[in-house]
């Protein structure tokens, strides 16, 4: 395998994990790190911490990971594209649709791999869920709902909970269902004194007809990361915090209590918690990016897909502002 020279822009809360995985990845050599804020977590090792993106590019890199605040994504990505560097930016792709589209266009024009770090696609529970859906184990899919809530992370200052967290749910839902969003309706609240929303609920429908619902906030003392897919034969529950997947089957034994049976519609059946290999999602994501750079088959999340997710989030925020549903 050819050794790719990798650079990392940003070694904050997320960047430090990128540094670790890049150092452990076969076929990749982390040769340069840049962060104008220095190295708060001490991950540089023997590397000098470079001051900016220009210095990172001058180190002679083949690929880069951008893990800086969202508002800086466009500037870094466009400079990397101009320099011929394949790039993975953390999600969301950008802070505006216009910026995101410029990034998509730049990498397409340069013939480079442009990717977005929607890491939930690489969560073992969701990968196993999608595999079982493709094999028809649920039958027809009726509804996908997610809950992603927890305390406010002080590291986020430039976007609200919709772009930072709900983008995960939008991306994973479209990917699991293999269908794009058609309509969305959303509501937001502002409770923490910041200019950005800290709670959002999004409901909508995919082009396939599947109903979706997302509850996302930074206002809960409990951390929850749950995806529920309900369908013809029961419901899958994926806990992406633990990587667990459980199936609740519709019952096959008729209920003798007639009033309960007619009220519930379906009866409770067997509950199965699956055992499967659970690899670190960030490592799997980096492997996908590396393979894409090498021209191998890959499930990397493209910038075009990241832009589509941002469009759904912007539509949800627009809906919250107007009080009406938005068609995409």
UniProtKB/TrEMBL annotation:
Domain GFO/IDH/MocA-like oxidoreductase: 127-236
Descriptive protein name: Dehydrogenase
Domain Gfo/Idh/MocA-like oxidoreductase N-terminal: residue ranges: 5-118
Keywords: NAD
SUPFAM superfamilies: Glyceraldehyde-3-phosphate dehydrogenase-like, C-terminal domain, NAD(P)-binding Rossmann-fold domains
A GO term, aspect molecular function: nucleotide binding
Pfam families named in the record: GFO_IDH_MocA (PF01408), GFO_IDH_MocA_C3 (PF22725)
Record bears the keyword Chaperone: no
Domain of life: Bacteria
């Amino acid at each position: 395998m050819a050794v790719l020279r990798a650079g990392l822009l940003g070694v904050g809360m997320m960047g430090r994990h990128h540094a670790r995985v890049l150092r452990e990845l076969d076929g990749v050599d982390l040769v340069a790190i840049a962060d104008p804020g220095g190295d708060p977590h001490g991950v540089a090792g023997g590397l000098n911490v470079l001051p900016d993106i220009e210095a990172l590019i001058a180190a002679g890199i083949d690929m880069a990971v951008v893990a800086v605040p969202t508002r800086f994504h466009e500037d870094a990505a466009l400079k990397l594209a101009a320099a011929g560097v394949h790039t993975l930016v953390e999600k969301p792709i950008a802070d505006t649709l216009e910026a995101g589209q410029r990034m998509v266009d730049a990498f397409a024009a340069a013939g480079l791999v442009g990717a977005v770090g929607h890491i939930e696609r690489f969560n073992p529970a969701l990968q196993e869920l999608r595999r079982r859906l493709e094999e028809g184990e649920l039958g027809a899919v009726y509804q996908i709902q997610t809950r992603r809530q927890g305390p406010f992370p002080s590291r986020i200052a430039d976007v609200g909970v919709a772009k930072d967290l709900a983008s995960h749910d939008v991306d994973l839902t479209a990917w699991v269902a293999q269908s794009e969003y058609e309509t969305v309706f959303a509501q937001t609240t502002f409770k923490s004194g910041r200019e950005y929303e800290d709670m959002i609920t999004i409901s909508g429908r995919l082009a396939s007809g599947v109903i979706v619902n997302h509850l996302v906030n930074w206002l809960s003392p409990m951390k929850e990361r749950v995806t529920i897919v309900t369908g013809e034969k029961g419901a899958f529950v994926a806990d992406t915090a633990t990587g667990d997947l459980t199936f609740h089957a519709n019952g096959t034994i008729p209920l003798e209590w007639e009033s309960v049976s007619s009220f519930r519609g379906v009866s409770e059946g067997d509950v199965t918690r699956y055992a499967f290999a659970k690899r670190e999602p960030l490592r799997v994501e980096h492997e996908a990016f590396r393979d894409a750079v090498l021209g191998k088959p890959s499930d990397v999340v493209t910038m075009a897909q990241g832009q589509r997710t941002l469009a759904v989030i912007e539509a949800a925020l627009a809906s919250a502002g107007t009080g009406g549903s938005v068609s995409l």
